[in-house]
Amino acid sequence: MKVIELKMTVTDSNDRDAQALRRELSERGIFLINLMSAPGSGKTTLLSRTITDLAGRADIAVMEADIASDVDAQRISALGAESVQVHTDGMCHMDAGMTRMGLAGMEGANGIVFLENVGNLICPAEFDTGAHKNVMILSVPEGDDKPLKYPLMFSRSDALVITKMDASPYFDFDIETVERRVKKLNPDILIFPVSAKTGEGMEAWESYILSEWEKSHA
Amino acid sequence: MHELSIVKHVIKTLREVAEDNKVSRIGSVTLEIGEVSGVVIEQLTDCWNYFRDKDELVRGAPLYVETVEAVTFCTACEKTYETVRFGRICPHCGSPETYLLRGNEFSIKQIEAE
After folding, report:
1. Domain membership flag for residue A146
2. What pTM does this model have?
3. Which pLDDT tens digit goes with each residue over B41-61?
4. Which fold has domain B2-69+103-113?
5. B94 and B19 in contact (C-beta within 8 Å)?
6. Looking at the partner chain, which of B13, B17, B114 has a beta carbon nearest the beta carbon of A1?
7. Span A57-93, pLDDT tens digits
8. Which domain CATH number covers A160?
9. Least CB-packed of A57, A59, A133, B83 within 10 Å?
């Protein structure tokens, strides 16, 4: 029997697939944003508000990835945006292959596509989906200690949106503590504190999305 | 759940390796896994034993796992220490300015080709 030395990281084949997908999407004029967070952090609410606010300024489509159901995709469709529901069939994260399959069902997409990853702070950070930007969402009720508990997610994200800021008077959530902890893990990360309910901070977040999208096809 | 998808990724990578090396059967697979990579080895082995028999290429092949001890380096006092025992704070000088030297590995080290 012959021994073959490999020394390949387990995510090698996914990494290659993700690179290829990123290039294909850029050629098609699609800007893919991977949204990652814990369940219940307000991803769909943030997206709904973003789609409504940016109506007429950008084409937005959404790929919803969940283990089961299509409740999120229905909420997005109700706003008139193209949406597709991907079932990961028990898997706890999206990979590049699954993202590619989901995109195949969105022929009309042309512009910004949000991938709403499975609600989970662990493995979505380890698998490149082929997205151009990785954005993490942390909601106020989850607490300001999350950067300590899930460092990989914070270190792999380009931006962090802190949602439910309107609820901060009711929680022991110190925004400066979060910023300090996050910047320590990832000095380049951009942080957007928002409330999709009151609209606080939404403009800064939306300008970021628009300017990154414009940069991508400049 | 996580381990299940890891096994699927391992098998996908092995298929590519087998094709590149013109291998039709793999006799065993050795993984190198760091102590703080977040992988539960018992679960990984269970998932492997389930999936390997669904694929001609790796049917019956045992999975060997080599664990890599996690070591952290302190930038303040320039000493190293055991990550699992002490975490992020340096036990020598108390500084939090530390980073992981090794222990996050997660790779396919080698295969035995038949």
Report:
1. yes
2. 0.80
3. 999 999 999 999 999 999 999
4. hypothetical protein PF0899 fold (3.30.2320)
5. no
6. B114
7. 999 999 998 877 788 888 888 888 888 888 887 777 8
8. 3.40.50.300
9. A57
